[in-house]
């Protein structure tokens, strides 16, 4: 942390860290970061902040005395002790200085017209070139919803989608079982919860989503939406596009209707009108892949015009 160019340090497993600097990210070996050292760090921060850090309460978030923000996820909620340290910038820039450094260089006006990628996706879908359509959707960071019954092939396709993600991106998955396979993206963390709260760790999908947002994900994958975590998931993917999740549904439209019901289960969702929920869905869910009982995709839903129609 003595390097002023360092903005973030992510320890996903012992002896290794992904260090983010102003000029890029690099994987570095940390000889001192043994499993014991990582746990001792968590215990030290927990004691200093009067919090718990153990198998029952494996999530710990705190501010360090020197100003850094730190997030721990301990087993069994993760495969290894995960540590994310975010370092705030000590430099204060004026608006003019930021302008000179290109702050507004990529600023464009909002438009009701479809963008180039959306038009290309529509053209590929119309030509039934679905493999190319999906690959472009992944690279363009569209949010995917996979819908179908148990055993319909959702997980198999989810694994294939992950293979299309650039290897330099940081992926965080949230599952109740280790089903997703991540081989191309070395910077990844698996977060785990027990279905029905039967495990030792007192964590829920919603709690893991909140922790995930402090761990600098490029993409986050929630294996399946089942309850009131749906609202937190949509909030998360609104700022972290390119995410993938799944629900049980018979058609793409029913999958979206199922999302409405799940959103209604959260206190925040109960306060929203049906049209407000639909607007939120259309603006965050880009592509729905609907699976049938034969493990085939029977429907591809992509309607970017609805996103424009429901924008504020």
TrEMBL record:
SUPFAM superfamilies: P-loop containing nucleoside triphosphate hydrolases. Residues 6-262 form the Bacterial type II secretion system protein E domain. The keyword ATP-binding applies. GO terms for molecular function: ATP binding; ATP hydrolysis activity. It comes from the Bacteria. Pfam families: T2SSE. InterPro entries: P-loop_NTPase (IPR027417), T2SS/T4SS_dom (IPR001482), T4SS_GSP_E_ATPase (IPR050921), VirB11 (IPR014155). CDD domains: VirB11-like_ATPase. GO terms for cellular component: type IV secretion system complex. Keywords: ATP-binding, Nucleotide-binding. One of its GO terms (biological process) is secretion by the type IV secretion system. Belongs to the GSP E family. Part of the Type IV secretion system. This is Type IV secretion system protein. It comes from Methylomonas lenta.
